[in-house]
Each structure stands twice: as C-alpha cells, then as structure tokens.
Write a structure and sequence with these properties.
By secondary structure, the chain is mostly helical. The chain has one domain: Lysozyme. The chain has a 3-stranded antiparallel sheet with strand order 3-5-4. A two-stranded parallel sheet has the order 1-2. α2 links the parallel β1 and β2. α3 crosses α6. It is globular, with a radius of gyration of 20 Å.
Length: 333
C-alpha cells in the first residue's frame, strides 16, 4: 500500500466490474501514524531452514504461543516452502512467519483507535484540545476516508471508530493462506503480495498469466510483507465492499464480545467473485488449521522499546512500525 501518493484510475468497463465484484484494487498513500514498535528483527530468509533456525533460537513454535510471539519481521518469504513435504509442517511455518506482522499491524491500528477514543472523551468532558491534537484527529479521518468532524459530530465519530479497529489474526492468516497457497504463489514470492491486491498503475505490479484481454490490472508489488499486511487491513477497514464486516465488528464490540475470525469472515463475500464459496473456504481454513488458537496471541514484551541510532524510544517521537523495520534492516548491515 505504500507505492504512490496518488493514483488515477483509468479503468475500462471490464476492470470496473472486477472492482465492484472483488474490491481488491484499493491503493492508499503511505501511513504516517506514530507507532512505538517492538524491537523488530527484520530478516529476509533465503530458505525455510533459516526460518527453523531463527524460530528455534527464539523458542517460537505452535506450542509456545502462550509465551508470546517474538517481533520477527519477515520481509519476504523463502522460495522453498513448497519443498517441505509434510503439509501440516509447511502450514505451521507459514502461519508462524506471518503472525508477528499481523500482530504488529493490529497494534498500530489499536494505537490509532485509542488515540481517537482519548481525544473524544477529553473533548466530551470539556477539555480544550490543542491545535495539533485536533489536526491529528482530522488526519485520522482523512486516512480512513471519513468526511466530517469526529469530535463534534457523533455519527462521524461512530463511523471512524467502526473503521479504526483490528482484524482477527485467524481471518487475516486464513486469507493469506488461501490467496498464496500457503506462501508458495508467484505473487507472494515475486511481489510480497499476500492478499491478491491489484494496481492499475502500469508496471507497478505483476501481470497475471490469465488476465483477460483488454484488462489493465496488475497484481501489486510490495517492498515487504508488512506493507502487504497493512495495505490489506486498510482495504478491509475502508473499502465500501466490506461495510457489512465493519458493522458486524462494531456490533460485536458494543456487546462486549471478542472478535471472531469465523464470524467476521461472513463479511468477505465481496472479496472474491466466488462470494459465498470463498467465505466457506476461509472459514474452513480457520477451523481446519486451528487458527482460532491465535485469538489471544500477543507480541513478547521482553525487549525494550525500539531504539534508533538517534535514541528514539519510549520518551521521544515513536516510529511507525514500517519505518522501525526499515531501520532495523539498515542497522543490521
């Protein structure tokens, strides 16, 4: 989601039909949200064996999830995942590889949500917010494509809160598995694209082999897997195709219940032209691969807040998660 600051859509009727059917071609400018990321370890493994070695060193397995998920930021998937003969073993390695990225992206969104809630509560209590605080809330509304004043207009606030919210890891990982063949697809390996998102900027993506004649869409390339995860979450949280999913999530919140990936998956009908069949596939993956076990997964907090060479940390300007990962990669060389 981080390639262009503005995208012009010159779409032929066929592409428009695909847009309305699938809602995957959503492109947004880079997010500048402040975020204090954990001490992310950015890596680009050349083989699945490197992943095993790293995960072993971190004592990170399907059985140790209750001990916390290490903040490992996989920038790309190794291209030999398909060589793992045991299907369950390959699936688990895929899920373990992406889970930290999903949790980091959710934490970023959760921080935005809390920022809005605190500002709204202060405003309702008669506290005068500073100009920078009000500008920040305006920026959040613009980022999530909500028109109006979320501080002074309650219906606008409710709409913004319905958009700034996390997504269950079980649903996110099930979709990634479905779209990439558990990390073995051409688009995942060549473009770090985990969710089949499109672009209409010529040359910005990968041309599908089976693209219909006259169509202009390409499958987007992302700098890292984390960029793909964030783009997907912004898509689900803002695209009109997933309004029903957001409504169900807001209702679940209002009832004080935990978010369920299997339930929210009902709101993914427009994600694929297969519609209900696609939803059944996602729900089946969640159940078959026991992804509901990830509901309570959290990032480990053993490490201190992320530090840069300039000393950014808990008491100074927080970094965005994506920037923190880039700095980690730079400082590792």
């Amino acid at each position: 989601m981080k390639i262009d600051r503005s995208i012009l859509f010159f779409i032929i009727p066929l592409a428009v039909m695909c847009f309305l059917a699938e809602g995957r071609d959503f492109e947004t400018p880079p997010r500048t949200t402040p975020y204090l990321a954990p001490a992310a370890k950015a890596i680009s493994p050349s083989s699945h064996q490197e992943l095993y070695t790293l995960f072993d060193a971190e004592n990170y397995t399907w059985q140790t999830l209750e001990e916390g998920v290490p903040p490992i930021a996989l920038e790309s998937l190794p291209d030999d995942l398909a060589r793992i003969r045991q299907t369950d073993e390959r699936k688990q390695l895929f899920f373990l590889s992406l889970l930290p990225l999903v949790l980091m992206a959710n934490e970023e969104i959760a921080q935005q949500r809390q920022e809005l809630i605190w500002a709204a509560e202060a405003f309702d209590a008669g506290v005068s917010l500073g100009a920078l605080q009000e500008e920040r809330i305006e920026a959040l509304a613009a980022e999530y494509h909500v028109t109006g004043d979320p501080l002074r207009e309650l219906h606008v606030r409710e709409e913004l809160l319905s958009r700034i919210d996390i997504l269950p890891p079980s649903m996110v990982l099930a979709q990634a598995a479905n779209e990439t063949g558990y990390g073995t697809s051409r688009f995942a390996l060549m473009g770090n694209n985990l969710f089949g998102e499109w672009t209409f900027t010529p040359g910005a993506g990968i041309v599908p082999h089976n693209r219909p004649r006259g169509a202009r869409h390409e499958v987007r390339r992302f700098p890292t897997l984390y960029d793909s995860v964030r783009s997907y979450m912004k898509n689900i949280n803002t695209h009109r195709a997933y309004a029903a999913l957001r409504e169900q999530r807001a209702k679940t919140r209002a009832e004080g219940l935990p978010l369920s990936g299997r339930e929210l998956a009902h709101g993914l009908t427009n994600y694929s032209v297969r519609r209900e069949a696609y939803v059944r596939e996602i729900r089946s993956i969640i159940g078959r691969d026991r992804l509901s076990l990830l509901t309570s997964a959290t990032l480990r907090r053993d490490d201190p807040p992320f530090q840069t060479r300039e000393g950014h940390g808990l008491l100074s300007t927080p970094l965005s998660a994506s920037r923190a990962i880039r700095v980690a990669r730079t400082e590792s060389h």
